[in-house]
Amino acid sequence: KLCQIHAVAGSNENTIVVVHAVGPVIMPWVNHTNVKAILWPGLPGQESGNAISDILFGDVNPSAKLPYTIAKDANDYPAKISREMDFAYAEGMYFGYRWFDKHRIVPQYEFGYGLSYTTFGYSHLTMDPIVGGTEDPENLKVTIRVKIKNTGKFDGAEVAQLYLSYPEIAQEPPRILRGFEKVFLAIGQETYVSFDLRKTELSYYSVKKHAWVVPQGDFMAHIGASSRNIKGTVQFTL
């Protein structure tokens, strides 16, 4: 496959690579000067041809986001290939983008990444007054709002993502995805997107108490277009 991509890109200055794969693949050809775009359908099924042509010819504006992290090098992943089928999953809770964040590894394409034929702007990141508290976790609610505007030349959809950083006592990864919302916006249209964080989203599992616990301390809610493209952050204390 690598030879085919290099052969085509070597003779065509407007090469688009379409990747059919069940998961991340290493792409050493990504910086080839003639590779102008990458389309990642995954395994779309029998309508693959129609779906791909709709996007390539502009009949449909793509809006998907990566459900995993694509590394620059296979050694950047914690799990290693074993021909003896003996795998040691020693990374614990630091899998996927959490591993890359913890070790500050720069990926090729981060979790939640995805392009569109249009562009979007984020602004007016706010938080409503907190309802309840750690003493009454069942009724606890933290609401985060952000305004998203279609700033480009095409109608399109954006997937806003909320990542949460916990107080140090929770010993959680640097950021954890705790919500996402997809909004369709016409050219110039804008709307508010809201995220409600309740006990489920705010808790961590305490091995000492053998229960889910809402920790006391400072939280940070990060709103972004991907796990690495953070548009704004708000801090709150419980």
TrEMBL record:
<dbReference type="GO" id="GO:0008422">
    <property type="term" value="F:beta-glucosidase activity"/>
</dbReference>
<keyword id="KW-0732">Signal</keyword>
<keyword id="KW-0326">Glycosidase</keyword>
<comment type="similarity">
    <text>Belongs to the glycosyl hydrolase 3 family.</text>
</comment>
<dbReference type="Pfam" id="PF01915">
    <property type="entry name" value="Glyco_hydro_3_C"/>
</dbReference>
<dbReference type="InterPro" id="IPR050288">
    <property type="entry name" value="Cellulose_deg_GH3"/>
</dbReference>
<dbReference type="GO" id="GO:0005576">
    <property type="term" value="C:extracellular region"/>
</dbReference>
<keyword id="KW-0378">Hydrolase</keyword>
<keyword id="KW-0964">Secreted</keyword>
<protein>
    <recommendedName>
        <fullName>beta-glucosidase</fullName>
        <ecNumber>3.2.1.21</ecNumber>
    </recommendedName>
</protein>
<dbReference type="InterPro" id="IPR013783">
    <property type="entry name" value="Ig-like_fold"/>
</dbReference>
<dbReference type="InterPro" id="IPR026891">
    <property type="entry name" value="Fn3-like"/>
</dbReference>
<feature type="domain" description="Fibronectin type III-like">
    <location>
        <begin position="158"/>
        <end position="227"/>
    </location>
</feature>
<dbReference type="Pfam" id="PF14310">
    <property type="entry name" value="Fn3-like"/>
</dbReference>
<dbReference type="GO" id="GO:0009251">
    <property type="term" value="P:glucan catabolic process"/>
</dbReference>
<dbReference type="InterPro" id="IPR002772">
    <property type="entry name" value="Glyco_hydro_3_C"/>
</dbReference>
<comment type="function">
    <text>Beta-glucosidases are one of a number of cellulolytic enzymes involved in the degradation of cellulosic biomass. Catalyzes the last step releasing glucose from the inhibitory cellobiose.</text>
</comment>
<dbReference type="InterPro" id="IPR036881">
    <property type="entry name" value="Glyco_hydro_3_C_sf"/>
</dbReference>
